[in-house]
Amino acid sequence: MSATMSGLPSIPVQVETPAGGGACHGNALAILHEVRHALERLISTGEATRIDLHALPFGAGDEAWLTALLGTGEVRATIEALGPTSVQETAIPGVWLVDYHNAEGQRLALHLEITCIPGILRTQCRELDTAVATLDTRLGAATPGGSRPLS
Amino acid sequence: MRVFEKNPLEKGLAERLREHGVSRRGFLKFCAATASMMALPPAMIPAIAAALERARRPSVIWLSFQECTGCTESLTRSHAPTVEDLILDLISLDYHHTLQAAAGEAAEAAREQAMRDNHGQYLLIVDGSLPGPDANPGYSTIAGVSNYSMLMEAVEGAAAVIAVGTCAAFGGLPAAAPNPTGAVSVMDLVKDKPVVNVSGCPPVPMVITGVLAHFLTFGRLPELDEYHRPLAFFGQSIHDRCYRRPFYDKGLFAETFDDAGARAGWCLYRLGCKGPSTYNACATMRWNAGTSWPIEAGHPCLGCAEPRFWDAGGFYVPLSVPTGPASDYLLAAGAVGAVAGAVVATKARGRAKEEAAVRQPVTVEELEQKL
């Protein structure tokens, strides 16, 4: 549940942030080494790797430390399918953050993908069988020199 | 592992979702969330997608006995899938007397109808313990039928039984001393059908739906531990998956709930944390849609997923260490890391009953000497 969804910001309580509360506990360091191995595999064999960050024993600050260290790259995309999924390339080429949320804004999974392009960004081959039919329908409904395209 | 037959005429999940306008990307996203929920590595997503494309909706009958409805409350907090997804798309929930619209005779008729129509195929979910066959059945009845009779009748046509919550799995609070109702667990009574225990008070919502998703995806029950709990969720101790574990390894402990150590997020062992002897998925799946979990909120683990946790001593009393050889194992575990810790904790758990009588509280000084 996101803080906005839960109404947490409206609760008039000031929480004193403890010294170690939001700090990195060092649990993300091992993941970075795993990413390094995955990158080497990607380079040498082309094999892609996915790491489920949501299933790791991170403390409050570990995830933020990891994502800050990986940085932000050139590509950012949002996919609207059963809620938003954001795909962000990190500053390390070939390392992507894929953040899955449901329609209510709750996180379903957070993956680090070490690949040239995350699979969810590609056109799905299973849907190509409807592509020509969809275009034909639109062509049939289109007016030459027409006014408004179909949505 | 037993594989259950499916009706070949029924549509698969992928087809049903497509009819509801869900794209292929949406389906793959659903598979990614399902893998995460089942604690499976993301590399399994293609296999999950292939299996879910063929998956049929199993009939589910949910019986609630001596319980507080906390387990159902937990289930309704599942966010991937939501309980609505679960009921409408993934399973056919044919009887659940808290969630269903029907009441009274109509509700009981729905249960009996589902049992007849899906004989040998339905999943039976139970929350709550129940008075055993030798106890007064009047302590807990539904529609005038004793819990014991209703369970044994429903078990007869079930493919498998899932005991949800520590009460159903191990007896829980109703079975705590002096156990006035003669409460027993499902596992105590059901011997001829597969029983899966999803313990916790309540269980993590995603663990409940994860077990159902595993059955739906692979058509069989997950691998289980010695207490019949799914290894995917109960295979590691809270301690070994705890983000505060590095503080334990360094001997840094909070002594009170408001001291400098507590504010710095140090290990809660000295405040009674039962993480070293408790097996559950809280540390990774967390609660409230992954927001946090008790230890992250600054409270020690109560050990609610373990048998007899109500009678295991005070919640705020430090976990004792067995005297004798086992204590050396447990103290050494902190020094040599998580893998050894898991092995030692498993050994310690196996001996827990025998050694309970000779346990002594361990002090920080003793721990630090060993570390």
Helix content of chain A: 25-40%
Structural class of chain A comes to: alpha+beta
Tally of distinct domains of chain B: 3
Q: What is the second-level CATH architecture of the largest domain in chain B? A: 3-Layer(aba) Sandwich
CATH architecture verdict of chain A:
2-Layer Sandwich
Q: Which series of helices and strands of chain A comes N to C? A: HHEHEEEEH
Order of helices and strands of chain B: HHHEHHEHEEEEHEHEHEHHHHHEHHHEH
CATH superfamily of the largest domain in chain B: NADH:ubiquinone oxidoreductase-like, 20kDa subunit
Kindly provide the name of the CATH class of the largest domain in chain B.
Alpha Beta
CATH class of chain A: Alpha Beta
CATH topology of the largest domain in chain B: Rossmann fold
Principal-axis shape of chain A equals extended
Helix and strand composition category of chain B: alpha/beta
| Largest sheet data of chain A | 5 strands, antiparallel
| Helical segment count of chain B | 18
Low-confidence segments of chain A, given as residue ranges, are none
Largest interface: A-B, 40 and 39 residues
Main sheet attributes: strand count, strand direction, barrel closure of chain B? 5 strands, parallel
Which consecutive residue ranges of chain B, at least 5 long each, have pLDDT under 50? Answer: 1-9, 322-353
Strand content range of chain B: 5-15%
Number of domains of chain A: 1
Describe the structure.
The complex is a heterodimer of chains A (151) and B (371). With 151 residues, chain A is α+β, with helices and mostly antiparallel strands. Chain A has one domain: Ribosomal Protein S8, Chain: A, domain 1, CATH 3.30.1370. Chain A contains four helices and five strands, in the order H-H-E-H-E-E-E-E-H. In chain A, a hairpin with a 5-residue loop joins strand 4 and strand 5. Chain A is extended, with a radius of gyration of 21 Å. The two termini of chain A are 32 Å apart. Chain B has 18 helices and eleven strands. Chain B is 39% helix and 11% strand. In chain B, the strands form four sheets. Chain B has a five-stranded parallel β-sheet with strand order 2-1-3-7-9, with helices on both faces. A two-stranded antiparallel sheet of chain B has the order 4-8. Chain B folds into three domains: 48 residues, no CATH class; 178 residues, Rossmann fold (3-Layer(aba) Sandwich); 126 residues, Cytochrome-c3 Hydrogenase, Chain A, domain 2 (Irregular), CATH 4.10.480.10. The N terminus of chain B is likely disordered. Chain B is of the alpha/beta class. Classes of the chains: A alpha+beta (151), B alpha/beta (371). The interface between A and B is large, with 40 and 39 residues.
